[in-house]
Every structure is written in C-alpha cells, then in structure tokens.
Amino acid sequence: MFKKILIANRGEIACRVIKTARKMGIATVAVYSDADKHALHVQMADEAVHIGPPPANQSYIVIDKILEAIKATGAAAVHPGYGFLSENPRFAEALDKAGVAFVGPPKGAIEAMGDKITSKKIAAEAGVSTVPGYMGLIEDADEAVKISTEIGYPVMIKASAGGGGKGMRIAWNDEEAREGFQSSKNEAAASFGDDRIFIEKFVTQPRHIEIQVLADQHGNAIHLNERECSIQRRNQKVVEEAPSPFLDPETRKAMGEQAVALAKAVDYASAGTVEFIVDGEKNFYFLEMNTRLQVEHPVTELITGVDLVEQMIRVANGEKLSLKQDDIGIDGWAIENRLYAEDPYRGFLPSIGRLTRYRPPEEVAAGPLLAKGNWQGDAPEGELAVRNDTGVYEGGEISMYYDPMIAKLCTWGRDRDEAIEGMRVALDSFEVEGIGHNLPFLSAVMDHPRFIQGQITTAFIAEEYPDGFEGVELNQSALRRIAAACAAMNRVAEIRRTRISGRMDNHERRVGEEWIVSLQGTDFKLSICADKDGSTIKFEDDATHRVRGNWSPGDPLAKIEVDGAPLIMKVGKVSGGFRIRCRGADLKVHVRTPRQAELAALMPEKLPPDTSKMLLCPMPGLIVKINVEVGQEVQEGQALCTVEAMKMENILRAERKAQVKKINAGPGDSLAVDDVIMEFE
Length: 681
Fold this sequence. Notes:
- By secondary structure, this protein is α+β, with helices and mostly antiparallel strands.
- The protein folds into five domains: 4-103, 3-Layer(aba) Sandwich (Rossmann fold), CATH 3.40.50; 132-201, Dna Ligase, domain 1 (2-Layer Sandwich), CATH 3.30.1490.20; 209-224 and 242-464, D-amino Acid Aminotransferase, Chain A, domain 1; 476-600, Glycoprotein, Type 4 Pilin (2-Layer Sandwich); 614-680, CATH 2.40.50.100.
- 28% of the residues lie in helices and 32% in strands.
- Strands 14-13-10-11-12-15-22-20 form an eight-stranded antiparallel beta sheet. It has an eight-stranded antiparallel β-barrel with strand order 24-25-26-27-28-29-30-31, surrounded by four helices. It has a five-stranded parallel beta sheet with strand order 3-2-1-4-5.
- Helix 4 runs antiparallel to helix 5.
C-alpha cells in the first residue's frame, strides 16, 4: 500500500480524502494557494506545499507545480478529488511518466469519457441510448444559433470538458443561444482551459439520475445503485438522495447494467459515475460519464456502507475489487444538501467574507457505514446518521476564487421520511453567520410538498421559485409553536433583566403573565404560567402549549420542546423581541405587553431607500463586460452587463424599460455588494 498520498485539490473534498487516508494509515500531503494558506485541508494534512497565487489557473491546475510538490514530498500517489485536474488526461499521463500512481482511471478512459462529445459517440456505439444533439464542435455564436434551430429549442449548450455546472446554459430562443454560447465558452476556458462547446436537445420534465460504478484494473466492474440529483439551480446540483424515489427495480437494474457495460468498454478502473436523464415514463438517456469521484458520493456510501475513496486507493494500488455485485444492496435512505456561500434573497448570487460563526450540527454515526466499520472520523452512535463534509471553519474566509460550496450536509435514516426529518433538524441546527448562504432555501425544499412526495424534475427550482426565493411563509400551526416558545424565552430574558437591574428582591413575581406575540403579520394574545419544569402557554382561544427548554439569553441556538416535539431555532436580538430563523423562515418576533403592543401599532413604518433607478452589484465580483452606453434606451430583460464571481459569469438585465443616465464601472473593475454599476433616468 502507498505510504504517502498527495491530494491535488482543496476544500471539503481534500479533507474528505485525508480522513480515509488517515484511517488506512497513509500519510497525506496538501497543496495550497496563497488564498488557502490557513485552510482546513492544510491544517489536517501531514504535510503541505505552497503552489502559487489564488487563481486556479496559476496554482491548482498547473501540472508542473503539482509535480514539483510530489517530488519535494516523495508522494507515491495522487488523489485529484473532483474538478481542477481530476479529468485531465495530460495530468494522468504526466503522473505515469513520473512513476506516480493516479488515484483515478487510466488516461485512455479519461480521454474517452471525459470529453462529452467522444463519450456520446462511444455510448451510442455500445448501444446506450443518448440524447439527440450535435456532436461536432461549434465554432461561433452564429453556428450555435443555426444548430440550435435545427435541433429544436430548448437546447443545452455545454462545455466539452465541463463539469459541476460550469460552462452550461439552457437556451429557449436564438438570443439565448447566442448569449449562452459565449458565456459557456468563457466559463469553460476559465475553469478548464478548454473552450470547446457542443449542443444537445434539452429534455423537458427530466429527472437527473446517475449510477455509481466501481472497477478495478483486472476487468471487474460493479455498480452501487443510483443517486437522484434532480434539484438543480443553473445546472448545479443542490440536493441529492439515494436511492431515487422514482426508479423501480427493473429500471435500476437496466441502468446499472448499461453503466457497467460502458465502463468496461473503455477499460475503466476506479470510481466513476454514469449520468442519465430519465423522463416521466422511465425512459433513460445517457448524458455523460464523470471519470472521478462525484461531489454527491456520500449518499451512496451511506446506503451501501462502501468507502469509495478507500476503494479508489486500493484500485490504484493494483488490488482486485473485494466486492461483487451481489454484495451491493440498498440499506435505508440518504439525503445530501449542499450548503453554498450564495445569498438566496439575491438570486443565489455568490457571497464572500469571513465566517464569523460556523457551528455545524453534531455528526452522528449510524447505518451501513457504521456497521461495516467505514465511518470516516469520530462521531457518537445513534439511530439516524448525520454527516457533514466540510473544508471551512469558524473564523475562516470564503474566497472569491473558488467554488462557493461550504459543506455537504448528509443524513441517513431507515426510510426516506426519516432521512428528510433528520435533515430538517440538522439544517435548523446549522449555524452560519458572516456571509450569505442558502440554508433557508434548503429548509424550504425539505418542507416542499413536491419534494416530500418525490415529484421532482430538474425544473423544480425554476417552476417553484420563478421569481427567486423570498423566504418561507409558515403556516398558523408553526407560528403558534414559535410564538409559544418565544413567550417562554422572553420570560427568561425578563427575569435576567430584573436580576441585572436589581429592581426587586422577588423579581420573578413581577414578570407579567399577559403578552402579545407578533410575527409574520399575526398577533397572538396569550398568557404564560411557569413552573420549575417549563411553561404552559394559553392562547386567546383557550388552546394551550407546553414549552420546555434550557435556553438562556444570548444563546444563538434554542433547542426547545413544544408539546414534546423538538423546535430548533436560531435566535438573534431585535428591539422588543427576537430574530428567529427556523424551517427556512426569517422572522422578527416581538413580545410586548398589551400596552406596549397598543403603542407599537401607532408607530410609522420605516421605508427602505429607493434604489429602483440604479443597477446595484449583487455580489462581490469583477465586471467582465458592459453591454450598454450612456443615453441608450434599454428594454425589460435586456442584458446590461456581465459580472464574474466564483468562476461563474452572471448577466445582469434590465428590470424595466429605462434610459441609461450614468455608468460608474467598466470592464476589469472589482466591485463590492451594492456598489452602483449604473443609473437610469
């Protein structure tokens, strides 16, 4: 077995590989850019080597720099993680020449499957059904429009060397095809150093379901069932689960057999994923094969008990697979939520800055991984598993140079309902402050009726949140539970205040019993009766709730029981009450005496400043292009400028018809959130 492995990556996947290597007794080497000097993966590794400036094309994807780090540390193998150099055949070839093992497939398989155009041709020759499309390279935007028209809209414009949602656009008309071609080409060049583009038919009402395969260097190959990855935003996966709530055993078997046949056709060896689009009739079409470890691999591990990273390392070491197809089953259900540094209230645009608070829920070991001794890291045992793969820590920086993913939160339960409920609790328990993040949106998805029923497609987010995410409106039952909890919490805070002020000896008797709790536009008139075990809250309609908990003023997380059921809330302070974040909702909860509530109703509402005639920068980023000029009349939906952040290009469009009065920024300018890009008449 290898004595030392270098991880040619960063962030959570580098940390993930280090955990398994440590379990196997293998020393690890991290590489890092200037921006990652204090990163978690650097702290976790046994050694670390600096490889250059923050931009990936000057550090993480420079093959010579990785080779220098290998030589300096004597690493015998390299795990590439995902992204960066993981699917670069030149990297695999360079390692081979250097006598260093690549913890991934052979160069030939990477070339055959890593290039989406070639892979589709091979799949078609192997009898795998593929999505209709144009398999040649597209030279310019005019040709892209012509081909898109011939295929028939909608079409998917893709980078041949792409992955992770980079270099992908859906076009519904000629204008979007033209714009999408150029943006995809730019993103592909920046992310992969390869700007080749192809186009295929976009299947409407599709489900994205993929098969995990595992093969060795001796001709053995198996599949580890499927993952459903249909909930996506801008072709980037957000929520994944295993197994799929849609597939039946017959379809699962057919997809698995095709995936294995394709892997054998290219002499694949290592872990890989064959992605399919599945329509409502369970017809499936080959999309691509990712010749690397997938971001969402933990859900497969959680239902099979197989440590995929360990298997990759053993295959790279020349070992035969110890697993047979009959050894692979489906035990329970797993869900993964990707926590991104993206502000859901600003159209999911990237957010950067310092993590002033980062407290994930406690990890809990359970299920097949625990049973087979493959749980990575130390965690107490429980009935439901909670796993958090992360590469950040409290006080660390979220950089503008890399992917915005902060963590992958996973839960496992004996069935889908248990896994979902476990995820709801875990999301509510996850504390992140200092940056914008998508925790509220993830909570909203977990409670969405379509998700609960398994009625999802890749259009889920676009269909259910067409105008973006504006938070969650809780139902009356949820509001009453929160109101009851906040009344009890307010009583604790009032007692604390009387103790601090020293206003009285028997302070608890002076805390009032009658209160009005206001939240989400609703006022609840209630009374509170406390005893040593908790509080009984009685509402105006005589309904009562029993509240228990050990929350103290200043605690940012409240773990309360209301009528015996858990209620977990993130708690902040606002004048006269609390800021409560729970189940995707962000609420101002005011707890007032009847007289205070009467006076508050007379106070005028403070209105926000008018920015309707300004185009504000929605994220920290770089101006790539200005599409208009001063004095020009623009129409609703017209492209105004392009801002690049975290390797993604974002086109900002006019919200209404207007005339450009002033332009305050130009290409190459770096802007902060809410900087004024241009003003309108």
